[in-house]
From TrEMBL:
It comes from Paracoccus zhejiangensis. This is DUF4440 domain-containing protein. Gene3D superfamilies: 3.10.450.50.
Length: 168
C-alpha cells in the first residue's frame, strides 16, 4: 500500500540541499506570498535581468503560447492582480475552509533537473479549491521554471506557465 504524501513536507532528502531549497522557494514561500498578496516575500526569488515569462494559455499547441511577461515588472503586475483578486474572494467568504490548504494539496513539485548552476523545475497543479457555495475551482496546469544559482542561492530566471497538465 502506497503512503499518501504530505503536501506540506519537502519531499527531497536533507542531503539534497539544492532541490530542498528550490522546493522551499517554489512551494511554501510562493503559496504563502500569493495567498497574502505579499510580493515582497518573493521579490528576491527572481533574477530581474533578462527575466522572461511565457504563457501557454492552457493550450497544448506551442503555437498558441505567448511572451506574456517580457520583464519581471510585467509578471509582478499580473501576479499582484491575481493575488489581490484571490484575496478579495477569500475575504468575501468565497472559499470553504482555508484555500491555502487546497493550493498545497493540489501542488506537486517532485521533478528538478540540475545541471551545474541551472535547473529545470516542473511544478504541477492538480486539485480543487472548495467554494462556500458547494462548487469548486479546478486547479489543473503546470509550469516549467528555469532557475539559476545566483549569489549562492537558487532564483527564478524565467518560466513557461499556464501549460495544460495532462496526466498519463
Amino acid at each position: 500500500m502506497a503512503t499518501e504524501r504530505d503536501p506540506f513536507v519537502n519531499p527531497f532528502p536533507a542531503e539534497d540541499a539544492d532541490r530542498r531549497a528550490i522546493w522551499q522557494m517554489l512551494v511554501p514561500r510562493d503559496i504563502d506570498a500569493f495567498v497574502s498578496a505579499d510580493w515582497g516575500a518573493v521579490a528576491d526569488d527572481f533574477i530581474a535581468a533578462n527575466f522572461t515569462g511565457m504563457s501557454g494559455h492552457f493550450q497544448p499547441d506551442p503555437q498558441k503560447f505567448t511572451l506574456a511577461f517580457p520583464t519581471l515588472d510585467a509578471y509582478r503586475t499580473e501576479w499582484l492582480r491575481q493575488a489581490q483578486e484571490f484575496g478579495a474572494a477569500r475575504a468575501a467568504g468565497a472559499f470553504a475552509g482555508d484555500p491555502r490548504d487546497g493550493i498545497f494539496a493540489a501542488t506537486r513539485l517532485e521533478e528538478i533537473e540540475i545541471d551545474g548552476e541551472a535547473a529545470l523545475v516542473r511544478k504541477k497543479f492538480d486539485g480543487h479549491l472548495a467554494k462556500s457555495d458547494g462548487s469548486s475551482e479546478r486547479m489543473n496546469w503546470q509550469t516549467l521554471y528555469v532557475c539559476r544559482r545566483e549569489g549562492g542561492r537558487w532564483k527564478i530566471a524565467g518560466f513557461v506557465g499556464y501549460l495544460p497538465h495532462i496526466q498519463d
